[in-house]
TrEMBL record:
Pfam families per record: STAS
Ranges annotated as biased composition (Polar residues): 128-137
Protein known as: Anti-anti-sigma factor
Domain STAS: 7-127
Stretches for region Disordered: 103-137
GO molecular function ontology, one term from the record: anti-sigma factor antagonist activity
Length: 137
């Protein structure tokens, strides 16, 4: 069985908006790393009012990935930070729709699910790399 890259993460900040860009699978193998990475990025960027997750590079989300999004939403709400899942694929939208979490997690986006945050680097991008596998089912 071949292994595929799991998840690469970068974050950039523009003003009070922090954008996290995961690339790869958000699943059982990578969900905890995603949680840790976002927590560290938020700690390094105090005053963040909006966290955008640019979902363009996410190619697979399982129940643990969905759980990671839900836990993130809960933590951000306690900190009064908004969450937007931008540039979602049709597969991710379908997963969120089937599980009844689309409105709860995605919130209003600028272009109906494919909103892009145009960000400039204010802070140096951070990156992380893990291993995992998967495609949308």
């Amino acid at each position: 069985m071949s292994r595929r890259p799991g998840l690469e993460l970068t974050a950039v900040r523009q003003g009070r908006v922090l954008t996290v860009r995961p690339v790869g699978a958000l699943d059982f193998d990578t969900g905890e790393e995603f949680d840790r990475y976002v927590a560290e990025a938020l700690a390094e960027n105090p005053g963040t009012e909006l966290l955008r997750v640019d979902c363009t590079g996410i190619d697979h989300v399982d129940s643990m990935g969905l759980s990671a999004f839900l836990m993130l939403r809960r933590r951000l709400r306690a900190r009064e930070v908004e969450l937007r899942l931008d540039r979602r694929s049709a597969g991710l939208d379908r997963l969120l729709e089937i599980t009844g979490t689309l409105d709860h997690l995605a919130g209003p986006s600028e272009d109906g699910g494919t909103a892009a945050a145009d960000t400039a680097d204010e802070a140096a991008p951070r990156s992380a790399d893990n291993s995992g596998a998967g495609q949308f089912s």
